[in-house]
Amino acid sequence: MHRLGLLLTERLCLVYRRYGLSEGEFDVLAALRRAGEPFERAPGELAAHTMVTTGAMTKRIDRLERDGLVTRRRSAEDGRGRVVALTPAGRELIDRAFAEHMENERSLLAGMSPQDAARLESLLTAWLARMEPPPPGP
User: Fold this and answer.
1) Orientation angle between helical segments 43-50 and 23-34, nearest 10 degrees
2) N or C: less crowded end of the chain, CB within 10 Å?
3) 8 A C-beta contact, residue 22 and residue 64
4) Is residue 14 within 8 Å of 100, Cβ to Cβ?
5) How do beta strands 70-74 and 40-41 pair?
6) pLDDT band at 101, cuts 50/70/90?
7) Alpha-carbon distance values, 56 to 14, 62, 71, 104, 121 (Å)
8) Cis bond before residue 38 (omega within 30° of 0)
9) Confidence class of residue 116 from pLDDT cuts 50, 70 and 90?
10) pTM: predicted TM-score of the whole model, two decimal places
């Protein structure tokens, strides 16, 4: 399992690197894109969506902001809070990178029959549900 995980991660990271991104930076941009208009979230929400600590998220946001892919501003609802948003350059980059990422994922499964791919998806979904901790309650 470990060897397969390393091989898959390396193949996925090839695409991210073509766009000048780390795996974590890709995750942040994708989470912001999935948020829909206006493509923004609080840093804590991003940390939860990408399953990293707030400290790790701050480092990722710092790099993405330095590269002009996201902006940070004070929250209109809570002046103490912050909001991270995609810039137009960030949105354009994640749209291109995500399209290539999806093509790459499909190519990784290309050698499987549709039945095997469906069976693998079912098994991995069930296994992840058993392994992953439940989401925090309200």
Assistant:
1) 110
2) C
3) no
4) no
5) unpaired
6) very high
7) 22, 10, 17, 26, 30
8) yes
9) very high
10) 0.83
Q: Which structure tokens are listed for 123?
A: 């098994």
Q: Looking at the predicted structure, is the pLDDT value of residue 135 above 70? A: no
Q: How far apart are CA 31 and CA 33, in angstroms?
A: 5
Q: For the structural domain made of 2-105, what CATH number should be given?
A: 1.10.10.10
- Cβ contacts of 50 within 8 Å, gap of 6 or more: 24, 27, 28, 31, 57
Q: How far is CA 88 from the centre of its chain?
A: 18
Q: List C-alpha distances in Å: 63 to 19, 56, 101, 105, 127.
A: 14, 11, 21, 26, 34
The overall average pLDDT reported for the chain is 90
pLDDT in the model for residue 52: 86
In whole angstroms, give the CA distance from residue 16 to residue 94. Answer: 10
